[in-house]
Amino acid sequence: MTLKQLEAFYWAATCTNFAIAAQRLNLSISSLSKRVAELEISLGTTLFDRSGHRAILTQAGQDLLARSIHLLDLAANIKRSMTKASGLSGYCAFGVGELSAMTWLPSLVASARRHHPNLHLDPCVDVGATLEDRLNHGELDFAIIAGRSSRHGIMSQPFVEAEFVWMAASSLAGDDSTCAALLKRGVPLIALPPLAGTTQLIDDWLNVNQITHVERISCNNWSAIVGMLTLSVGVGIVPSGWAERLADKGVLRRLADKNLLAPLAYSFQWRRDDTRPLVKEMRELVRITADFLQAVSFA
């Protein structure tokens, strides 16, 4: 039994399929399968039931999984203690939403490169629901997503909030128009797609203001949303830091409403059984780096 065999078994057991597990280890599927088979021979037991459409853990495999996590953690800690100066190494795939990518993601990557020069980073930008699904399937090591996860297998640690304000072009807003009045008049709402974290935020605000029907224009890009707002296509929410700069330049006008949007809490999410130093170290880097008030890239 070797650590490489245990590592192959761990990823095969915790990912949706062997293809994803092999990708996480930068191996071919055949190489991954060979390591798992060699481990089974070494232990004299079958770890996966391969009779169905996908391999599932046997009872022996389930028993080994908890022990393998402990052994791999121990090996990682020993390695780190002996090579402390070089920091983390290997491959790290993680996910963020577009607003994070536009603000603090570059700072996070730069900080991670300084502290962990041997760690290869692979950030993915997508909507929260997609990132959570990929995290659950083992494709990502962690993700920064609006809100908490409802899945038992995923841990969530809130760490930062983002604030948003309603905005529109001056030609559309007039001198004293409120967002509620414009929406009730039939002006379109321009927002991220339904699976985005801001959707619930907007829906809660609409409910408070007793607005039951709006025309929605969905777009998965913040810059495109702001572009449509500036051309008087409709009204929408904009991150507060960006909103201040747009208002100062006279590009958009902030809409005054008696009911403010609630802040949107973002959380660091990771799989419950993943106790690797990688997760702990990156969680701390995210905590001290994440700031939605940083200058918006390409704004």
Report what the structure shows.
The protein has a 5-stranded mixed sheet with strand order 4-3-5-12-6, with helices on both faces. Strands 10-7-11 form a 3-stranded antiparallel sheet. It has a two-stranded antiparallel ribbon with strand order 1-2. The protein has 299 residues and is of the alpha/beta class. The chain folds into 3 domains: 3-82, Orthogonal Bundle (Arc Repressor Mutant, subunit A); 92-155 and 275-289, Periplasmic binding protein-like II (D-Maltodextrin-Binding Protein, domain 2); 164-262, Periplasmic binding protein-like II (D-Maltodextrin-Binding Protein, domain 2, 3-Layer(aba) Sandwich). The chain is built from 13 helices and 12 strands. It has helices at residues 3-14, 18-24, 29-43, 59-82, 98-102, 105-115, 128-136, 170-173, 179-184, 198-208, 222-230, 240-248, 277-289, and strands spanning 48-49, 56-57, 89-96, 118-125, 142-146, 154-162, 164-168, 189-191, 216-218, 236-239, 253-254, 264-271.
